[in-house]
Amino acid sequence: MVTPQLPQTHTSYTLMAKQNCRSKISSIFSDGFLFAGASIVALLVVWAFWSFMNTSPNADPSFLTTSADQNSALKTPVDPVSLGFNLRYDPPDPTFYDDPDLSYTMEKPIKNWDEKRRQWLNLHPSFIPGAEERILMVSGSQSTPCKNPIGDHLLLRFFKNKVDYCRIHGYDIFYNNILLQPKMWSFWAKMPAIKAAMIAHPETEWIWWVDSDAAFTDMDFKLPLDRYKDHNFVVHGWEKLLYEQQSWTSINAGVFLIRNCQWSMDLMETWAKMGPQSPEYDKWGEILRTTFKDKIFQESDDQSGLAYLLLKEKEKWGNKIYVEGGYYFEGYWVEIVGTYDNITDRYLAIEKSEGRLRRRHAERVSENYANVWEEHLKEAGYGRYSWRRPFITHFTGCQPCSGDHNQMYSGETCFDAMQKALNFADNQVLRKYGYMHKDLLDSSSVFPVPFNFPA
Ligand SMILES: *[C@@H]1O[C@H](CO)[C@@H](O)[C@H](O)[C@H]1NC(C)=O
């Protein structure tokens, strides 16, 4: 994969988000408070794509080395899609599942997880080939119907989008819609779900948390896992913004990759201590607010907490956390949505000139055609100002379920943008089924794709 270049930019947008609907964006706070009603403190943040750096030395995929602490049994590289798992075999030999003291809950830490996982894999050898690259996507939303009348419909479409992406690449997906720890509400809810998913899936190496309001808008792009070989956690962000500006929005905790290992169990234990179920919650609210000058709300939140661990406990945690700024590991919809039309045109022009891309094929072999696309995308770049399809478009501030969207944009702007993103993605999928949307804003109609389209 080509090392992406990120351009310098000083564009800024003003963005407001309600306090309880935290706006997770890369921004630098500057303007001040805004009160939008007795019980709602809105916060005003200045969005600033602040001196994007070229990718850090870390982002160079050539740094790859073999990590010593990996089980050699996990190392056989096999195309995960072609695996033949033995789904009916669970030998009577005791594993961690048989230990009455082992708990899935956040309250009770897990020890020796690497060893336990390895032991389970050795007893279930059909899951060993390809284990090192295996990914389980985890997402979720609330347990009750959405307040926004179209909220559940939108969440269904966002979920469908994730299912499509996972099916194309042979990943599993787990969608959780209940608070596993009742006090860990909102953005804290993902932690117990991730811990539970790690225990439920010892065969998977990575858990990929993707917020319910994030959509895959490049169905072909795959995570450059090789780049993360020496790391246990990957998050989108800007290290310069974090280390030089101490901004809590220098990273986005709405999408991350976390390795299924003891380090991650320990990280989540430490991280969860900052959460609302913890006696230290108020203390952490203070600490995080003092640490991040641009954090104007009192409550401890997961994103600031993670930024704190990167900043203050770099030796202990930061060195294993990869801050990915080289492509849209997730990206802010406001800067992305306007680019879909031009990107569509660029891609159509490539298809006109490349017969291999016009060939109809089974969805199962899509990755073969993704490789052909790459030959034509060498100049496309990555992330902002590139004409590559943005990997993940994140609808931060749109709040599709509650409808309490950020006051900066109208509900209609959010709604149209979501339709557009979801149909842009859907076109890439439907294409393999012989159909496409005519218009990205028309979710309800499609046309049959002519043979050899778009020659
Ligand atoms: C799309 O392309 C047109 C024509 O090249 C250009 O004028 C316009 O600025 C582009 N729009 C965006 C959002 O990049």
UniProtKB/TrEMBL annotation:
Location within or outside the cell: Golgi apparatus membrane
TM regions (residue ranges):
32-53
The domain of life for this entry's organism is: Eukaryota
Extract the GO molecular function terms from the UniProt entry. galactosyltransferase activity
**What does the entry list under GO cellular component?**
endosome; Golgi membrane; trans-Golgi network
Q: What is its main location?
A: Golgi
* Gene3D superfamilies with a match to the protein in the record: Spore Coat Polysaccharide Biosynthesis Protein SpsA, Chain A (3.90.550.10)
Report how it sits in the membrane.
Single-pass type II membrane protein
- Which UniProt keywords are given for this protein, alphabetically ordered? Glycoprotein, Glycosyltransferase, Golgi apparatus, Membrane, Signal-anchor, Transferase, Transmembrane, Transmembrane helix
List, alphabetically, the PANTHER family matched.
Answer: GLYCOSYLTRANSFERASE 7, XYLOGLUCAN 6-XYLOSYLTRANSFERASE 5-RELATED-RELATED
* Similarity comment: Belongs to the glycosyltransferase 34 family.
Q: What is this protein called?
A: Glycosyltransferase 7
Record the organism: Solanum bulbocastanum
